[in-house]
Design brief:
Layout (H helix, E strand, L loop, with lengths): L2 H12 L21 H4 L3 E6 L4 E2 L2 E2 H7 L3 E7 L17 E2 L6 E4 L9 H4 L4 E5 L10 H14 L4 E4 L10 E4 L14 E3 L4 H10 L11 E4 L23 H10 L19 E4 L7 E3 L18 E5 L12 H7 L12 H8 L3 H7 L4 H7 L1 H12 L9
Parallel strand pairs: 1-4, 1-7, 4-6, 7-8, 8-11
Antiparallel strand pairs: 2-3, 5-6, 9-10, 12-14, 13-14
Amino acid sequence: MTKFIRYFILLISLGYSSGIRAGELKCGAEQPDKYLALIHDKKVGLVVNHTSLAGEIHLVDFLLEKKVNVKKIFAPEHGFRGEAAPGEEIKAGVDGKTGIPVLSLYGETRKPTQEQLAGIDLMVFDIQDVGCRFYTYISTLHLVIEACAENNVPLIVFDRPNPNGDYVAGPVLKKEFQSFVGMDQIPVVHGCTVGELANMINGERWHKANKKCDLKVIQVENYDHKLSYSLPVAPSPNLPNDLSVRLYPSLCFFEATSVSVGRGTDFPFQVLGGLDPQLGDFEFTPKTIPGVAVHPLNEGEKCYGIDLRSLKIVPVFTLKYFLDFYHCFVDEKDFVTRENWLNLLAGTDEFIQLVREGKNEREIKAHWQNELNTFKETRKKYLLYPDFQ
């Protein structure tokens, strides 16, 4: 199936507008003519995972075929091969296929150290993002930019499309709520590719280095922000398809509640359900799935709620589901079980306060609109592709 056909099918099935452009879309890794000359005589470090493909070939294998001197691989959350469950610590080791050392950026060390960067002439970052602030691959990107700036190591970002890159929405993170699920002062849905976001992090000096990183982006060819992009491979274990990726911004706040998003089922981030039968007619029972969901919320217990897989039109970031479930609980504490985690996901404690005050979705969104407008103006400076506006 060609890329064009995949995009067309996605357009029909998900019901949102597309700005498909003439010409084949090519990710940064698929344009060796634009980067091989920059790296062929360098000792290269790669920040990659299972999404780092150059066509049908993993980037590591492709570069080795081209005689590039790949010295080290740095692995983010879920690991180099994408086989680790969410939150599972990634261990350092050696890649069995290539014999290249694999260093963990999701364990005790989350930023490449001076020792790890020793002997590296240049770093390459190539990981598929889904366009949400709390998706940790962009937190890894932030820390890699910072480490490269501190250690005078140039960084090349191989850019990829953003499957949620056709809009900007949600509260903007406040500094006091910075964490690994929110490193930068961006909204929940930032509307940037990883290349654009890298330029923003570097250009706005959001990292802690005392100088900018020597940064270059290999842009996606024939991409624009109106494009409906279907991911060729699942970016992480619990985002298995296009529907889950599009619903992820709206459902992630539930991770701080007693309501399951379907982890431990075959349809994560496509359903919602809690233990009270009054929550809905749809039923499912979460279970441990090795490498995908280890002891998920409500494991072994029947959950009741709603099935979103039949949606005709998938909404962009919405608070409807969260507010609907919130109002089903007499005692808030039976729903919001980890308030601190909710605040980190939202990037602010104002969201839950507004919910408690009985504000509706329109009122809540109006509360953060000024900060969102300010971000949009900042974002314009770093766009590499035609925008959706």
